[in-house]
Amino acid sequence: MSKRKKPYEFRFEGEGNDRRIYASFHDHYHCPHEVEISEELHSELVLLNRSVRNIESEEERHGDCRDLTEEEQAQCGALTNPSAEVEALNNLLIKQLRLAFLELPTVQARRYLLAHEYGYSYVEIARMEGCSIHAVKKSLVIAKKNLQKILRNRVPEIPSKFGSK
After folding, report:
1. Is 59 a member of any domain?
2. 150: left (phi over 0), alpha (psi -120 to 50) or beta
3. 45-71 pLDDT, tens per residue?
C-alpha cells in the first residue's frame, strides 16, 4: 500500500439493503467531517484510490526505465506487451475469477476484494465492517479456500513454459 496519507476513510453500518456508508475526512482547516455516501460513490472512490496507488507504484518500479530501449526496459523489469496467448489466458482467468466471486457469500467477497484488490489492512476492514480482526482473517481464509475450490474445476492447468519465447 502506498505511504501517502489517505484523504478519507470509510465507515460502514448495517448489512444488505440497510447498509450505510460514511466517508470521513478533514477539510483545509483540519476540521473533521463525516458524510453519508452512496454505494456507487464509494465504489468510484475505491477505484480512484486503487488507480492512484497503481500509478504511484508503476512510477516507482519503472521510473528509471523510461528512456531505455525496449530490450533495456525488459532487462530492468519494465512492463512489456504480453503475447496474444498470454493475454487470452489472462482474460479467461479474469472471467472465471469474476464468476467465482459471484458464488461467494457477500461478506466473504466484499472482505476479499477490500483486502486483495483495494489493499486495505485487516484492521481497516474490521473497522469498516464493525467486527473483530479475527472475524476478518477467518472470513478471508474461508473465502480463499472457497475460491480455490470453485476455480479448481474451471481453470485449465497452465504449462510452465506457456507464453515464454
Report:
1. no
2. alpha
3. 777 777 677 767 766 665 555 566 666
